[in-house]
Specification:
The protein has 80 residues and is mainly alpha-helical. Helix 1 crosses helix 2. The longest helix has 15 residues. It is built from 4 helices and 3 strands.
Length: 80
């Protein structure tokens, strides 16, 4: 599966990028791995997925399971 970035570039899907992002936001490693795996499964069979779509799936799952980490991620996004 390929990921289409905001700038239009395409790259291979790398599950670990989701894991790293969740951990950097303050999430536990086990939770980060679970969310990454669940998110990847939702896109099975698709050739290309927009990075924004992946991000939204991850945030939805994070909000439901760890509100504090979700808020931390959102606060970080606002500083970028």
């Amino acid at each position: 599966m390929k990921v289409k970035r905001k700038n239009g570039a395409e790259e291979d899907f790398v599950r670990e990028k989701i894991v790293v992002a969740v951990v950097k936001a303050g999430g536990k490693l086990e939770l980060a791995r679970a969310i990454a795996q669940e998110s990847e499964k939702e896109f099975v069979g698709r050739d290309i997925v927009a990075s924004q779509e992946i991000r939204q799936k991850v945030l939805d799952k994070l909000k439901a399971r760890d509100a504090a980490t979700y808020e931390s991620w959102i606060k970080y996004d606002k500083t970028k």
